[in-house]
Amino acid sequence: MKKILLLCWSLFLVQLSMGQNCTVVPSAVEFQQQYNIVNAQTTDLAKLNYLKYYLHGRCLMADQAGQLATLFYDDGYRLTFAEEAYRHMSDKANYFSLFDSFHGLSAAFRFYDYVNNGDHNVTANTQNVPPPPPPVQVLSFPNYNYPSPVNYSGMAGCKLPLSDNDFRVLVKPVADNQGDNAMMTGASQFVAANCISMAQLMELASLLQLEMNRSAFLKQNFLHVYDLGNYQAAAQVFTSPTYQADWNAWAAAQLTALSAPPPPPPCFVSEGDMHDITGSISKLSFSSTKLSTAKQIISAKKCFTTRQIKELVKLMTFEGDKLDLAKYAYDYCVDTNNYFLVNDVFDFDSSKTELSNYVQGKH
Description:
Layout: H1 2-19, H2 28-40, H3 44-55, H4 62-69, H5 75-87, H6 105-115, H7 164-170, H8 172-175, H9 180-193, H10 198-205, H11 211-221, H12 241-259, H13 271-282, H14 287-301, H15 306-314, H16 319-329, H17 349-361
């Protein structure tokens, strides 16, 4: 009977061990989220403790473990993580993927020895392994009436923002900064690297002590926020009505500028076009025809420099036609401050004086 019971117990242990084989690995999205959380930890010990907590009851692929291992600064912590990760690895045959993450050969050899000596399944002896730490603590922020980016359909400064859970974990190192200057620098770098919501921008601003710094921070980072249309909620970070009014007016002006149609393309006549124009007019026989054609082209093209107008006026045969065209073209000149240069094409001082008086009358 004892032998039968012992056999049954052995079979049970084998089935239990087989049932704990690691097969379900995190998706690419979940892995990236966890990678970001680990990367946000400020010390190797914090990274190791978080990963031990995360790996409890979970699996990793060898290449995922290798990517996480590169986040450690010290090979000792990296080796401890590699040994822990191997026990949770779904494709243990690929354990060599972690070799490249080690800075020194000694740590890589120790990991090799660890893998090739002993049993390292998930049920291995954990006497020397500390218990999993509690989940990473997240920050608490003021009880504002935060706007929700869910179903937001207005003007956006970036693509989908971080989830609130990820934000509050990733922003922890920013909150550890001392003083408004360091806090503003860290918070601005965080915004530049992530897409955040207006509510999250408000939470970052609340970390600053001075309202003038909160105002500067909101304005500096406003255009990197997903739900720009929720800007009015951000006025809650101020206690001063003056700062509240200034923020609302400034943000509204920014949105107005963003929603305005783009400016028209610059107005100019290219050198190639100018060559074609002068060539066409030069071929005409009569001065009157040259004059009417030049006026027609000027009114169609609309934008000529003083130098280009001077070239067109030179093409006229008679002084009267030159003066007529010079007066007509003034309204289509893009640099009228240089229009006195057109006087050089006239033979008589009276024509120069008449054009100058005409230009003066335009001001």
